Amino acid sequence: MWRRQKMKDLWTIDRGNLTFKQEYPINDIEAFISSGITFFDTEICSKLVNLCSPPQYTTDYGRMKVFHQPLAYQSYVVGGDIGEGVPGGNNTVLTVYDVKTCEEVACWVGITSPEDAARKMVDLAKLYNQALVAPEANNYGHSTINTILHELGYAHIFRHTDYQKINVDGEDVQPKYGWQTNMKTRPMLLSEFRFALQGGLLKVNDPELFSECLSFVDNGHGKYEAAQGAKDDRVMAHAIAWQARQKSTETIHLTDYIVETGYQSVSARWEEL
CA 199 to CA 149: how far, in whole Å? Predict the structure, then answer.
């Protein structure tokens, strides 16, 4: 009774129950997420994680999870946050979304080189009906894009449009391959993903994303990122996938894939690659 009344007393329209959780945490996680300014709503994330669907298949030593098989005549996008490929470093995260339903259908998470990340990304894209691939074009992501284009020859790649360089025909005069994250685009990338995630516009099936959301906090200088000792690779990969999904208007030609998706599982096809 006392706890309920205190919660009511401390509730505000701007902070909700965060003040109460900060003053009277019931566990270490609650104390942690309430101590900083979290970018994502912790209460909503705590509810959304319970809606995640279990994977149908887990393969590649547990690094790849398949939540739904590809459907014929369906379009997909693959968003990617590329790590440096060093043990103990940042993960490479690849996540696949159904363009129509906005549901995560597969993901790959692990340590791998930027070049191998390109190969895995294209393998996923081919499994999912020649999906649009959207790697982050920063740091090691440039090597991934170079491998996708020049070694693998996969041309169905996201092109970033700079709205400040649009010509009179409404086209970017210099579109660039991959998602360009910088001081201008990062706030938009994260804000639009948060709106979609918390507003129910997309469905995430990897529960580990929400763990990263809970530790995605203000670093004290107005920039939101992973708290010390935490990771935000999944946050960035899903946010990029959402941008790719919004701009995905491609028509997929499934001549070579209709029969395959009808009888062979993603798990089996992945093992063959």
Answer: 35
